[in-house]
Each structure stands twice: as structure tokens, then as C-alpha cells.
Amino acid sequence: MRALKGRVALVTGSTSGIGLGIAKSLAAAGADIALNGLGDLDAIEATRAAIAAEHDVRCMFAAADMSRPVEIRRMVEEARGELGHVDILVNNAGIQHTAPVHEFPDERWDAVIAIDLSSAFHAIKAALPGMLERDWGRIINVASAHGLVASVHKSAYVAAKHGLVGLTKVVALETATTGVTCNAICPGWVLTPLVEKQIDDRAAREGISVEQARRELLQEKQPSGAFVTVEQLGGLAVFLCSPAADQIRGQAVAMDGGWTAQ
Fold first, then answer.
1. How far is CA 114 from CA 56, 70, 252, in A?
2. Which pLDDT tens digit goes with each residue over 54-106?
3. Three-state secondary structure readout of 109-143
4. Where in the chain is the domain with CATH 3.40.50.720?
5. 109, 157, 189, 227: which is the annotated catalytic residue?
6. Active-site residue 200, yes or no?
7. Model-level pTM?
8. Fold of the domain spanning 8-188+228-256
9. pLDDT digits (tens, 9 = 90+) for 165-184
């Protein structure tokens, strides 16, 4: 049950939502954890301490701005300095903005691409040499169903997540003969703070209840009619770190309630 004991996992965007769920699952499997993300520092410290105590692992926090390459490199170095090395890198940090292409603000496009795509490149570039030196590593890029299919008004997000799937394949090919693997997880709708905001915005825009907006969101895309949970995504991440996944390389694994099966 502690298959990842002795491993160190750095999870970006892990102070809430999917990233936190994955970090907790990796900690439950025995990995030491480096958290990263935004939020109230007291709340983050409480989360960090709770993970360390509940799972008997070391857990640190690195407050890197994921739009700044120099801070991303520093974050990887901080994790190495405090925890010894980085064996597992989960690139989860992401933001969203919705607007038609011809109305999409330039600065929002640049921000989404920087955080949802470029940050993964910079983190991989910083962490990969150490993984190759130890001949073991797991790189897991949290893409999206939108890394496989598109939706209107999400040009930057869809472009970034498609790019992240492509980056995953390149890194997998470049590490194919090593003990390092690189794969992408492509979630459908997960009830995270990011999605909650989309639901609230939809309810306000259409003059409907939040519950109705939630149902309609699922009905449009996700045939199962149920949200994917962060615990399910965490379980998939732990599996991708296991020996059973040694030959899963360059894959975009959809966990989306049937969204991309349509």
C-alpha cells in the first residue's frame, strides 16, 4: 500500500482541486510531496501539515509563479534541496478564460498559454535531467478532454491542452529507452473551484439555478451524467507511477465519463 515510499512528487497547482487530490493520493501511496499553488498562506500551511501528518510523509510548499520560467526552475531546485530529488512531476497548474476568438483578450491568451502549456515545458526541462540520471521518473501532464476535442469560446485553453498532449508525446519518445515515462491524464468535468465558477457564471448568465446549470453542463458533454472525482484522478496518477505502467508511454488517458467516446 506504500508503493511510492522513498519517491518525491512535485505537483503544480496543488493547493486545491485536481492537483490537491492527486497530491493526497500520491502521499497515501508513500511519496513525499512538494505542493505548489495559490491561496491563503495559512490555509496552505494547514493543508501541508495535514498531508504530512495523515500520511507520515515529508511535505513542503513552493510558492512559484507558474507564468515565470525562472521561478519554475527555482521551485524544482527547492524541492530537490528540501526533499533530495524529484522522481514524479505532475504538471497540473492551469487557468481558464472563455470568449469568442475575435473577442479573446490578447493578455488572457498569453496567460493561459503560459500557465497551461509553457509551465509544463519549463518544469519538465528542469526536472528531467535528474530523472534520467537516476533512470527512473514519472511525468504526468494533466491535460483535459479539451486536449482531445474542442468546445466553443475556449480557444486558448483548447490550444494549450492540445499542445500539452503533443508535448507529452515528444517527451515520451525522447525517454522511450529509459526508466522515465511521460503520459497525460485527460479529465472531463470535475467539480473543482474552476468548474464551479463556470457553473455559477452560467447560472447567472442564463437566469437559472446553480443546480440546473450543473445538470445542463454534464448533459451537454459527459454521457455518464456524473462528475469525475479528484480521488479517481489521484488513483490513475498512482497507477501511472506503478511498475504496471512501465510501458504506458506518450498516452493521453481520458477519464471523462464517455465525453470523448462520442
1. 34, 13, 21
2. 999 999 999 999 999 999 999 999 999 999 999 999 999 999 999 999 999 99
3. HHHHHHHHHHHHHHHHHHHHHHHHHHCCEEEEEEC
4. 8-188+228-256
5. 157
6. no
7. 0.96
8. Rossmann fold (3.40.50)
9. 999 999 999 999 999 999 99
